[in-house]
Write a structure and sequence with these properties.
Elements: H1 8-21, E1 31-35, E2 41-43, E3 59-61, E4 67-69, H2 78-87, E5 93-97, H3 100-107, H4 117-123, H5 138-147, E6 153-156, E7 160-165, H6 168-191, H7 199-211
Antiparallel strand pairs: 1-2, 1-5, 2-3, 3-4, 5-7, 6-7
Helix pairs in contact: 2-5, 3-6, 4-7
């Protein structure tokens, strides 16, 4: 049975408010979704401020994107979310965001290397960059699915990042961790050469991610 989130709509709304407070998005940018036990998806709407967003603003869609509940239009990046759910049964939530330092790497088409222990434990290793694809297209979803293989996050070329995991709060933690790491690495790069974790250490930590952390809800 695919992973799902209990009280999915409430979890999406709480994460949306938290994402704004953390400065991981501005205005109405980015989007959050969560899969229900029935296999439907609650997703944030298009063009609604996170500051004023309420439960009734959220939209429930089926796996093909058909609207089941809600009076608003679902996020313009709905195809990205649905592609992730279709590809990975073990995820319950998807967050697309535009954090500044991670997006710097995305614009430069540079992956974020695993230089910090917790990075690989919670994300699985290097955060890859997708090939370029226009926003809102099925191609973007395909690119993201490929870059997310065995990873908790990927950079979207010239756009931002996408993260996946068991619940919205866990995925938001991954999003914040990627942004913090990107900030650290950008600063470290000004000081000199970056030194990634040794391959054997990264492999061991990445095994913790794939074997436990990817689906851990606690």
């Amino acid at each position: 049975m695919p992973a799902f989130v209990e009280h999915a709509a409430e979890a999406v709304l709480a994460a949306a408010k938290d994402m704004l407070e953390r400065g991981l998005v501005e205005g109405t940018a980015g989007n959050i979704s969560a899969r229900t036990e029935e296999g439907t998806v609650w997703i944030t709407p298009s063009s609604v401020s996170y500051a004023t967003m309420e439960l009734e603003d959220l939209v429930k869609v089926d796996p093909e994107g058909g609207v089941l509940e809600g009076s608003r239009s679902p996020s313009s990046e709905m195809a990205l979310h649905l592609a992730c759910y279709a590809a990975y049964d073990d995820i319950g939530s998807v967050i697309h965001s535009h954090p500044v330092h991670a997006t710097m790497f995305a614009v430069a088409h540079r992956s974020i290397p695993p230089c910090i222990d917790e990075f690989s434990i919670y994300i699985g290793g290097e955060v890859r960059v997708t090939g370029y694809a226009a926003s809102g297209t099925s191609d973007l979803g395909e690119q993201a699915v490929s870059a997310l293989k065995d990873r908790g996050a990927a950079l979207i070329a010239n756009h931002g990042m996408v993260a996946v995991g068991p619940t919205p709060d866990k995925v938001l933690h991954i999003t914040a961790l990627v942004e913090r790491s990107a900030h650290i690495l950008w600063g470290a790069g000004q000081l000199g050469e970056l030194h990634p974790l040794p391959d054997e250490v990264n492999a061991g930590f990445a095994g913790i991610y794939t074997g436990f952390m990817r689906s851990y809800k606690g």
